[in-house]
Amino acid sequence: MEKFQLSVKRFDEFASEYAEKFMDVEAYAPSIGRFCDLITDPDPAILELACGPGNVTRFVRNRFPNSRYLAIDLSPKMIELAKTRVPDVEFRVMDVRDISALITRFDAIMCSFCLPFLSSQDTNALIAHCSGSLKKNGVLYLSTMEGDESMAGYEPTNFSGEQKIYFNYHQQQDLENALTACGFVIDRITRQDYHEPDGRITTDMIFIAKKIPGKDKHQPV
């Protein structure tokens, strides 16, 4: 089974455990709040990628209660949980790698910790597709863990019992380069520590960027 598909399978199996562990997004509230502050339309069209059980969805939806909000995830059980927590949002089972098929242009795209499950090639393609899916001055939120690609591998989590999940790591400069190449100007980069269940401390990186008017990239970099 492909690493990506296996990760989806694990999230589907442990959706409830994940929701119990991560529904509170307070640690990321300043960054999510900044993302929301940059959205100029009071009733924006928002796309959320890899929404999980709706933890970030609920935060953003509360800021924009009249938004046209589409949230996608490839785990059916995550989508089921999200629908119960944020019932007035459109949820859809969908692969984030397929968003170029969406016709709607969005004012903002939220992508919270989806990149750990994407290779560098898929990540570059996703950033390009996000650029193509955003309106001018659209806002993009990306978060992931910092590290060299060689660190990628199966790791234990604090929600999946003995089952390990495959994680990818990304470098700050690589993501900066991909964003710039796809017509984004970076508003803010936040770095914060995260304590892993095996005792390691990893660094979370959060990028908030705006699409430069006149720049439109549909193809992967």
Could you explain how this protein is built, in words?
This protein is 32% helix and 29% strand. With 221 residues, it is of the alpha/beta class. Strands 3-2-1-4-5-9-8 form a 7-stranded mixed sheet, sandwiched between helices. Strands 6-7 form a two-stranded antiparallel ribbon. Strand 4, helix 6 (120-133) and strand 5 form a beta-alpha-beta unit. It is globular and about 45 Å long.
Furnish the topology, listing elements before pairings.
Elements: H1 3-13, H2 15-22, H3 29-37, E1 45-49, H4 55-63, E2 68-73, H5 76-85, E3 90-93, E4 106-112, H6 120-133, E5 134-145, E6 153-155, E7 165-167, H7 172-181, E8 184-195, E9 201-211
Parallel strand pairs: 1-2, 1-4, 2-3, 4-5
Antiparallel strand pairs: 5-9, 6-7, 8-9
Helix pairs in contact: 3-4
Give a quick precis of the structure.
The protein has 221 residues and is α/β, with parallel strands linked by helices. The chain has helices at residues 3-13, 15-22, 29-37, 55-63, 76-85, 120-133, 172-181, and strands at 45-49, 68-73, 90-93, 106-112, 134-145, 153-155, 165-167, 184-195, 201-211. A seven-stranded mixed sheet has the order 3-2-1-4-5-9-8, with helices on both faces. A two-stranded antiparallel sheet has the order 6-7.
